[in-house]
Amino acid sequence: MKILSFDLDGTLLTDDKKISEKTLEVLLRCKEEGKVIVFNSGRPTQFIYSVLPEVFHEDIVISSNGAMVYKNKKLMHENLIDKNTVWDIIQMIETVFNDMFFIVEQDNRSLTRCKDREYNKQMLCNYHEFSKENVLDSPKILLKTKDLDYFDLNILNMLIPESCRLIFTDNMEFAQLVHADTNKLYGVNKVLETEKLNLEELVSFGDDFNDLEILSWSGYGVAMGNAIEEIKNVSKYIADTNEKDGVAKFIEAYVLEKIEAA
Question: According to the lineage, what is the superkingdom (predicted)?
């Protein structure tokens, strides 16, 4: 158990997007013991650093569902959707789903056409109006599907090129579009190569569909007590919930104390 990968929302963070005092204490003990710590989220890079205490900014951050890998805030690896594909996808989606809210993540900023500034403040960091002139290669396109009066998953899948894949999260509220090769396991495998570690030494925590691959293949895949059933079914262990310090309790019992989980 030399490397630990943490999802954020619904896992490491409480429901109010904080790291509890108990969890913070346990994470610091992991650092003292020399564990490799990875913060592995579907969120954009700037959001992840905004919720992490500065002491963890030197650790590894994987953002946008595995598309971007950072260490000490320096980019180690990226796997992006090219800008022409981004433009084509958004044009098609806006034609078919006229009112679908979207975010195009890129280069420490986010592009959108949403006019609700309060919603933007909740969802985005450094947002800009979407136009062809300011589109760059992107790690992820986020689509908000839940509020649509009409939404057909089959039609959406038909619009997505083979070079990309869809990941649904948050009770199907969001569809996250990434490069076809990209997921959280892809990102952490880049870290394992650099750190000369293997999957058997990896402890990973998660709760939603975008954690499926990494929890399935980790030596120690840990679903949160609040995880969806599909995630619990592929995980070797189930921790307490994110509101009850599930990550910290598992680490204290099975990682720091080096006791084999039953």
Answer: Bacteria
CA dihedral sign, ordered 68, 42, 208, 31: positive
**Up-side HSE of residue 85: CA atoms within 13 Å toward CB?**
19
Instruction: Pinpoint the residues of the chain covered by CATH 3.40.50.1000.
Output: 3-79+182-256
Summarize pLDDT for 96-129 with one digit per residue, the tens: 877 778 889 886 777 776 555 555 455 545 556 6
Q: Name the strand (E) or helix (H) holding 50.
A: helix 45-51
* Fold (CATH) for 3-79+182-256: Rossmann fold (3.40.50)
User: Would you tell me which CATH number, out of the four given (2.30.42.10, 3.40.50.720, 1.10.287.3510, 3.30.1240.10), belongs to the domain 83-179?
Assistant: 3.30.1240.10
Greatest pairwise CA separation for the chain in angstroms? 56
Contact assessment for residue 18 and residue 207, using Cβ atoms and an 8 Å cutoff? no
Cβ neighbours of residue 181 closer than 8 Å, sequence gap 6 or more: 79
Q: Tell me which amino acid residue 151 is.
A: F
| CA distances to 57, 128, 135, 246 from 107, in Å | 18, 12, 10, 33
Distances, alpha carbon 35 to alpha carbons 82, 151, 217, 242, in Å: 35, 44, 19, 21
Give every CB contact of residue 13 below 8 A, 6+ residues apart in sequence: 19, 51, 242
50: number of CA atoms within 13 Å, CB side? Answer: 12
**Tokens 């062809």 appear where?**
132
Give per-residue pLDDT as tens, 198-241. 999 999 999 999 999 999 999 999 999 999 999 999 999 999 99
Residue range(s) in the chain whose domain bears CATH number 3.30.1240.10:
83-179
Note the pTM of the prediction, 2 decimals.
Answer: 0.90
